[in-house]
Protein 1
Amino acid sequence: MRCPFCGNEDTQVKDSRPTEDGSAIRRRRQCPNCGARFTTFERVQLRELTVVKSNGQREPFDRDKIMRSMQIALRKRPVDGDRLDRVVNGIVRRLESSGESEIPSKVVGEMVMEALKSLDQVAFVRYASVYRNFREAKDFEEFVGRLGGDGD
């Protein structure tokens, strides 16, 4: 593992343990060159996934992209980081176990929206406003009105 601080190719593992939900291995590492300490996570990858965008473009699936988009939607909301990590792991597991290696971006977006709806209503609305590409306040108003009618 390369040191993120000095770029040294050889780092030492000081401590390894499973994460709380058991979905990854957390490793504390130290660089013998600069002495810096950092943490890495190893996760099981069941299959190579490709996301097919609406314009037909294909790109490798990126778990971190889901995490970043959900973190943006959840900014300044009272949701624990560990809980978010478990939700993202659940989405990734569902995608990997679906049996498909090519997944439409719409499926990924809907799974993220579903997860955010159960995590935090404000984050759900924030994400939906970008994902559904509301063009006018009226579109947003209709969406929020339907949300209130769900009894959530």
Note: Helices lie at 63-73, 81-96, 105-119, 121-131, 137-149.
Protein 2
Amino acid sequence: MSYSKPQLFFLTALRLLAGWHFLFEGFIKLLTPGWTAQGYLLSAQGPLAPLFQWLGNDALIGVSDTLTAVALSTVGLTLILGIWEKAGAYIGIAMLTFFYLAHPSWPGIPAAGPSEGNYFIVNKNLVELAALGVLAYFPTGHLLGLGVFFNPKNQVQHG
């Protein structure tokens, strides 16, 4: 697949920015003593609320917290480094789907509290999910990232 210079620039910028967001969110959770997703999970709304509340119970919260922080960091690293970015994007899509469904911004479902980026039906999780879908189907790591080293025949192609 060949990209024009503007396409390559914006796809790579999107990959790096989304990667930074995931990496930062993961690392800050790993490095913040006492951070927990328990409140978020226990306050879940919508049809899957029982699943999220189960994941937030005292017996499982340690596993839920660790998996969340490690998965966020892993997605961030794959996107920033441009290696296994499709897998990272798919993991991120799955995570964002869960985040969205835990607190959907649907009519008739009360919000857990004031939240930046939580609007009618579409919220920031859904927007970033769509961005990761673009990155999964238009990868750039094999052009500008460590993916170059795993497939040396790939070179940056400009259309």
Note: The chain is about 60% helix and 0% strand.
Protein 3
Amino acid sequence: MKRGALLSLMVLLPSVAFAWPWSRDMANQISIKPQEGPESVRPYPQTSVPMAGTKTTPFIKTHDEAMKLKNPNPATEKSIGYGRELFQIYCVPCHGTSGTGDGLVGAKLLVRPFDLTSDNVQKIVPEGYIFAHITFGGALMPSYGNDMYPSERWDVVNYVRHGLVADDKKMAQQKNTVGSAK
């Protein structure tokens, strides 16, 4: 008799334990996540017009469309400086401060990140190509289209085209000066 009671207790105890309210997982509750449901992504009304100065993404869907874009940001010191700051945040981990693909993350990849100081990037491809690559990503490069406003991406393009190589030359001169002082 004791054996039968013990056996039934062993069978019933786990099923009773799962019935207690505190054993329920709080993640399985009725709630609406931020990007769920019909109201998650609201399109602009048909008659809406963007305000001047509003940071909006140009309506481009492909890399080829983006390549045809002209840079709306002039390559001023302010634009290049802001592009340098963004480059240090988003690009340096893979491309390195020199832009040659010698970043800490880039060193761990099987394929080295693209050399942004090459003549191809600096002189041949249109600025829209660099913008498209930042926006849509590449084979190994992630997309930063959702992380930066279009104006910020153009500032990075200005830095890559007009400030990156100049910064490399300054750094090389500083190393030579420090090295000769020793």
Note: DSSP finds eight helices and no strands in the chain.
